[in-house]
Design goal:
InterPro entries: UDP_GlcNAc_Epimerase_2_dom, WecB-like. There is one protein chain. 46% of the residues lie in helices and 14% in strands. With 372 residues, the chain is α/β, with parallel strands linked by helices. It folds into two domains: 7-173 and 347-358, Rossmann fold; 191-337, Rossmann fold, CATH 3.40.50.2000. A seven-stranded parallel sheet has the order 3-2-1-4-5-6-7, sandwiched between helices. Strands 10-9-8-11-12-13 form a six-stranded parallel sheet, sandwiched between helices. Bound molecules: uridine-diphosphate-N-acetylglucosamine (UD1) and uridine-5'-diphosphate (UDP). Uridine-diphosphate-N-acetylglucosamine binds next to α1, α5 and α11. Residues 14-15, 18, 207, 209, 241, 266-267, 269, 272, 286-289, 292 line the site of uridine-5'-diphosphate.
Length: 372
């Protein structure tokens, strides 16, 4: 849709595809002239096309094919390529989502042109600037015109940074739209438990891919050791869909996967949702997985030193344990012993509609902002 484009949606990685799918669906429903620019940050089928196919999204209008590289090689190449598309399309609004290098590139390229920028999932803060994601989300927030904050807490962080109140909108997180839209389908259609020979309520799901963990041999090794020790003590199977970054690091560091952990391929969204919904416990360093487990009612243990999703901890769904092996065992034990039944803090599943309403796009569905 390059003629008369109103909205250009920039995305590049697995979590952005999943969390922007509800926004793309809402654009389709409202017959908004939109285009999708895929930076090509993720390109392997398991991180990319599998989600376009399963979520029935139209193929991107542009694939910039930027691929992997150092932080600045990747981000710089994306900025140049995105700018060229935006100069050609002249959209009124550019939407980016989250905290990856694709988000930073989209926000910077669009922020310097004559269009508005909307940052979906604005205001998250880990307060840890050693993480590339923290740098990306802070800069994207400050380049944006609309900050679509998932929660009041995220909106508060933006206000503390001096952002005007009328540029901050609490919309909930679009991941709730996606989970609500696909949870039942996953339960009906996914055969993943049979395929992996797992029993619902009798296994743990592990994901670990963040640079601060898997690019550091000691941290990665300690993380695997802690999870293996917990598996052994609790007698629970552990399945680990291995992200390509982690796969590469395992080989480069010559790390052996402990027998207690079964590595599997990265999963498609329905199979992954099914695993998350039926796991006894999820251990993860993913941002999106902390949210999804909280929404689905599965206890989560976060293998990081901090989180930009403190709401999950506050409601009792998540605990932050780091990567020390003893800490993982203790944290996982405590998480299992606790009752679940918390409230989902991330909204009602109408975030995508709210975002389009606030941006004045298409006929408004009757949803107000989450808070005033
Ligand atoms: C990126 C995000 C991270 C997010 C993750 C989602 C940044 C800084 N990081 O991390 O916040 O949690 O996406 O999954 O933007 N690779 C492949 N195939 C691919 C893509 C990557 O094999 O399709 C391998 C390459 O060896 C590459 C490595 O993974 O060097 C890392 O990829 P990169 O895009 O730099 O970051 P992610 O770890 O995917
Ligand atoms: N996910 C998936 N298959 C997997 C692992 C994760 O579909 O094997 C989905 C998961 O449901 C969530 C998203 O990927 O929506 C999270 O992405 P990731 O952990 O790669 O990135 P982060 O959220 O940490 O940026």
């Amino acid at each position: 849709m390059t003629d008369g484009t109103t909205v250009t949606i920039v995305l590049g990685t697995r979590p952005e595809i999943i969390k922007l799918a509800p926004v793309i669906d809402a654009c389709e429903e409202r017959e908004i002239a939109y285009s999708v620019v895929h930076t090509g940050q993720h390109y392997s089928e398991e991180l990319d096309t599998v989600f376009f196919d399963q979520l029935e999204l139209p193929a991107p209008d542009h694939n910039l094919g930027v691929g992997s590289g150092t932080q600045s090689e990747q981000t710089g190449a994306m900025i140049q390529e995105i700018e060229a598309v935006l100069l050609d399309e002249q959209p009124e609004l550019v939407l980016v989502q989250g905290d990856t290098n694709s988000v930073l590139a989209g926000a910077i390229a669009a922020g310097k042109l004559d269009c508005e920028v909307g940052h979906v999932e604005a205001g998250l803060r880990s307060f840890d600037r050693t993480m590339p994601e923290e740098v990306n989300r802070v800069l994207a927030d400050h380049a944006a015109d609309y900050r679509f904050a998932p929660t009041e807490q995220a909106a508060g962080y933006l206000r503390e940074e001096g952002i005007a109140d009328d540029a901050i909108h609490v919309t909930g997180n679009t991941i709730v739209d996606a989970v609500m839209g696909y949870r039942d389908l996953a339960a009906a259609k996914s055969d993943v438990l049979d395929e992996l020979d797992l029993d619902a309520g009798d296994f743990c799901l592990l994901t670990a891919h963040r640079a601060e963990n898997v690019d550091d041999r000691e941290r990665f090794s300690s993380l695997l050791d802690g999870v293996a020790r917990f598996a052994s003590e609790s007698d629970l199977d552990v399945v680990y869909p291995v992200h390509p970054r982690a796969n590469e690091r395992l080989a480069a560091f010559d790390l052996t996967m402990p027998d207690e952990i079964t590595p599997i391929d990265s999963q498609d969204f329905l199979d992954f949702l099914r695993l998350e919904s039926t796991a006894t416990l999820v251990l993860t360093d993913s941002g999106g997985v902390q949210e999804e487990t909280c929404i689905l009612g599965t206890p989560c243990v976060t293998l990081r030193d901090n989180t930009e999703r403190p709401e999950t901890v506050d409601v009792g769904a998540n605990r932050i344990v780091g990567v020390d092996a003893d800490g993982i065992v203790t944290g996982a034990r405590e998480a299992l012993a606790e009752q679940n039944g918390w409230e989902n803090p991330f909204g009602d599943g109408h975030s995508a509609e709210r975002i389009l309403n606030i941006a004045g796009l298409g006929s408004a569905a009757s949803v107000g902002e989450v808070h005033g």
